[in-house]
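Hi again,

Forgot to attach this to my earlier email, sorry! This is the prediction with cytidine-5'-monophosphate bound. I've pasted everything inline since the attachment limit keeps bouncing my files.
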Amino acid sequence: MTAPVQTDDVVIARAPAKINLHLGVGPVRADGYHELATVFCALSLTDELVAAEGSGVSIVTAGEGADAVPADASNLACRAALRLAEHAGIDADVEMSVRKQIPVAAGLAGGSAGAAAAPGACDALWGTGASRGDLLQIAAELGSDVAFSLTGGLALGTGRGEMLSPVLAAGRWHWVLAVAEGGLSTGDVYRELDRIREGTERGATLELPDALMNALRSRDTDALGAALHNDMEPAAFGLMPTLRRTKAAGVEEGAAGALLCGSGPTMAFLARDEQHAVDLAARVSGLGVCRTVRTAYGPVPGARITG
Ligand code: C5P
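Structure tokens for the complex follow:
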């Protein structure tokens, strides 16, 4: 290994949260992951990563749920930096700090956004000249949601969620996110889903519904609200029964649609426009059915260098 060629002293990158407008979960594969057919939408809630010259790889995290984020080499952003250095054949010397807006263990890719921001930030810091393809490959290796947080926008995800193709649709949608007290482990929710499905014919809904694609293209809020679907809901509701009430409450308060975010436990409510999202957020917040409420819009671009 050789010492990296330092280009900038400090690089700042941002990466977005995501929701899945459709999450179809197929059978478990030989590698332990489940086959997915999903439609990702990147949200305006972002994590910011600052990469600066350092000795070895280190990371500190501040903000939303920072206590739950590991500060050692198991941190996905550290692993991303190490992978890039290995790929480039240089020493991994970087001091990273992450300011989180995205709740962790909430189903919003809060654990993945830092990892999506890190390879691009380190590439700029080290002057490694990695291609977009290299960055995507590193992201895809690190986790099912990391690749999408890098590409952003609106995308169809297959494989274990890391194989992406863009979905073309105009405009943006406004959301209210009801973040539950406590987190759910993604692995636990998949295992609970397998348990529920055991011995039944249910599951493997790997076809994407035309209704969702049509609603996205035609910008029809009611049609989109009706087409939102997440196969993980029965499993997450089983592990955290209050979520069922949260979902019903948001719909009663006027959401055009509602669904669990990823493996949960955040619930996303579709609003009609920005003002409706603000009003709906205030009403949902007043019900006391969740820890905190956020508004966000999407789709937005993926991880990018901002400074
Ligand atoms: O990809 P990620 O590391 O976020 O996944 C966490 C866990 O969720 C995996 O270890 C696996 O148990 C489960 N998972 C799965 N199928 C997927 C994605 C995740 O079973 N497509």
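Residues 259 and 268 are 5 Å apart (CA to CA). The radius of gyration is 19 Å.

That should be everything now.

G.
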